[in-house]
Amino acid sequence: MPAAVLFDFDGTILDTESTSLTAWREEYFRHGLDLVDDAWLATIGTDADRYAALAELAGPGFDRERSWIRERARETELVLALGLREGIAECLAEVARTGIRLAIVSSSPADWVLGHLDRLALRTQFDVVVTRESAARAKPHPDLYVAALGRLGVPADQAVAVEDSRHGVAAALAAGIRCVAFPNRVTRRQDLSHAHAVASAADLSSYLLRAAW
Q: What percentage of the chain reaches a pLDDT higher than 90?
């Protein structure tokens, strides 16, 4: 079995990709624009500046601050209604019973990740939480995963990552970590064939507790 399992947060622990897409579709609509799915999918799992992309399309008069306040308020409203993704609670409990160490590795800021972990009473289940502030570069670069491995004191070949997106999988692989893709309703449209395995809610735990696939 692995010594540590490293979970992505957005889209993996919570299906925030779906709620984020809804909020951004509404914000684009306010400006008379349609959000192009392919362009959106390309930003998932990164720290891409989505407001800059909208500003370029909206043209002169775009109020970035007002757009940010409105979109974040709507996204927060939607996310607060979310529970854990199907299979995650059972997976965390089963992995924890084995003594395997758990970590969060996210390109999102600490206040977002820690706030939701506290809301869901999950923070104490993780030995390490690595967020955007923890490394110079976000995913798809490996920096955040390298930082997490250092804090855990676990070599890459003894860890497994769980990611929902193409960029997240790429980050884990670049750090030398085996990766299980766990796509959600949005990211299942991405090509995740570069992951070592693609899991459903029913078989996620079994993949994580295997020595090899």
A: 90
The CA distance from 8 to 46, in Å, is: 12
Which residues are marked as active site? 8
**Up-side HSE of residue 173: CA atoms within 13 Å toward CB?**
17
Model pTM score:
0.90
Among residues of the chain, what percentage have pLDDT more than 70? 99
CATH of 4-15+84-208, one of 3.40.50.1000, 3.30.300.20, 3.30.70.2190, 3.10.350.10: 3.40.50.1000
pLDDT of residue 1: 87
Domain map of the chain by residue range? Answer: 4-15+84-208, 17-79
